[in-house]
Recover the amino acids of this structure.
């Protein structure tokens, strides 16, 4: 049966999702974050409201995604396989749908402008909010389906921030509906809070989710140090981390955790690293992902810096924190440094590849102070190019005096000027 283009409408996707789910088809079970107090997090600080979606709304979104997928196939997309070229081709199809619906008398609101941004918002938050949308439009929906198909068409992420806080039968029902519409799905994942896993969900609940098809829970631990967790208003303790992740593992689910080197600042750097390594060792997650602290405008941590109550750890101190974790995590796990916020690419299996990772770290630590500065400049530039595909005008002006014969060497440039350039780049990066 041919898909009626008058039936094509956008569905709500999860803009905020783990990097491992960038190629997943996404649906929102909840909107935004009910906690929204973490001192380091800028994500929901500009007015995004938390809400729980009704089963009928979720089912309708899944049906809409299925209709888009069917229409793409009917129009020859993905033949013989999906590729980046399909993003360029889909624009005319979207315009055809919008025109047909308008002529048929439908009044769609998916193209209404988002709420205006505050006039003093900085460039990094402007960039961030350009892809964080509470109401995705048809283009976002088509792009999510095409991206999912390019990635193999087998993974699904159910957002937003903590779906262990909703009743298990609602989440299980959504997984079942996705399976009926997309029988090729092999992996379902969610974000969760360890406090929800330890206090709201029983082992029976979690086993029911595993039977329904849930495969993995992504947890933002950030730290294993209770003082640090309290300082940033995480609303969870090290005991919650261990108990919550342990219950998820006992239910037969995979666990991926995120930790934030630098979150203890200069004052608690060593203790933060030691306690985080201890908690990770107790949990034995399948994956540990590093997200070095970046201070975002408008966050409580930025206010704490201005007030003098928080001092950032130096880049070297953050690297030493990572070294401590790599050296002292005793469980089997896989560590990833898959964030633009990280200075070093430290990746591998523990304990098997511990020595290789320590060698990467020590190679940096053995550099002179000047060499460390130039290393940081080059590393941050690579991250920027990876995110943006080229330099902005202000970055070009800052960097060009440091380039000789096509290479950055910083000859004759004072350390303070290199530090300013690094700060400028970091101020534009998203983790």
């Amino acid at each position: 049966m041919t898909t009626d283009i008058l039936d094509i409408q956008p569905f709500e996707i999860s803009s905020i999702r783990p990097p491992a789910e960038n190629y997943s088809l996404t649906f929102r079970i909840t909107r935004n974050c009910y906690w929204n107090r973490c001192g380091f997090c800028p994500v929901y600080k500009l007015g995004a409201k938390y809400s729980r979606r009704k089963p009928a709304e979720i089912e309708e979104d899944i049906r809409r995604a299925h209709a888009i997928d069917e229409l793409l196939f009917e129009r020859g997309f993905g033949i013989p396989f999906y590729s980046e070229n399909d993003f360029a081709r889909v624009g005319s199809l979207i315009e055809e749908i919008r025109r047909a619906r308008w002529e048929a008398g439908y009044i769609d609101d998916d193209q209404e402008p988002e709420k205006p941004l505050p006039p003093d918002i900085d460039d990094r938050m402007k960039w961030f909010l350009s892809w964080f949308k509470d109401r995705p439009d048809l283009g976002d929906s088509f792009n999510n389906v095409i991206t999912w198909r390019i990635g193999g068409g087998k993974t699904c992420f159910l957002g937003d921030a903590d779906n262990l806080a909703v009743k298990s039968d609602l989440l299980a029902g959504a997984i079942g509906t996705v399976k009926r519409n997309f029988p090729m799905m092999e992996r379902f994942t969610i974000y969760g809070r360890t406090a929800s896993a330890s206090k709201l969900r029983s082992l029976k609940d979690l086993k029911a989710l595993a039977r329904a098809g849930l495969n993995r829970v992504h947890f933002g631990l950030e730290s294993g140090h209770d003082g640090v967790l309290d300082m940033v208003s995480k609303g969870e303790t090290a005991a919650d981390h261990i108990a919550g992740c342990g219950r998820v593992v006992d239910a037969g689910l995979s666990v991926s955790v995120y930790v934030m080197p630098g979150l203890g600042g200069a004052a608690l750097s060593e203790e933060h690293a030691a306690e985080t390594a201890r908690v990770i060792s107790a949990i034995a997650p399948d994956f540990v992902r590093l997200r070095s602290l970046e201070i975002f405008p408008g966050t409580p941590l930025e206010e704490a810096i201005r007030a003098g109550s928080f001092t950032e750890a130096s880049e070297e101190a953050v690297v030493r924190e990572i070294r401590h974790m790599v050296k002292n995590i005793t469980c089997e796990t896989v560590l990833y440094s898959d964030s633009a916020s990280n200075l070093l690419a430290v990746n591998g299996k523990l304990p098997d590849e511990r020595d290789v990772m320590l060698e990467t770290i020590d190679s940096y630590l053995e550099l002179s102070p000047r060499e460390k500065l130039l290393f940081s400049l080059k590393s941050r530039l690579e991250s920027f190019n990876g995110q943006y595909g080229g330099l902005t005008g202000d970055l070009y002006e800052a960097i060009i005096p440091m380039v000789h014969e096509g290479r950055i060497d910083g000859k004759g440039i004072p350390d303070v000027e290199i530090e300013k350039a690094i700060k400028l780049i970091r101020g534009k990066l998203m983790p």
Remarks:
- Residues 245 and 283 are 6 Å apart (CA to CA).
- The chain has a mean pLDDT of 93.
- The first helix runs from residue 55 to 74.
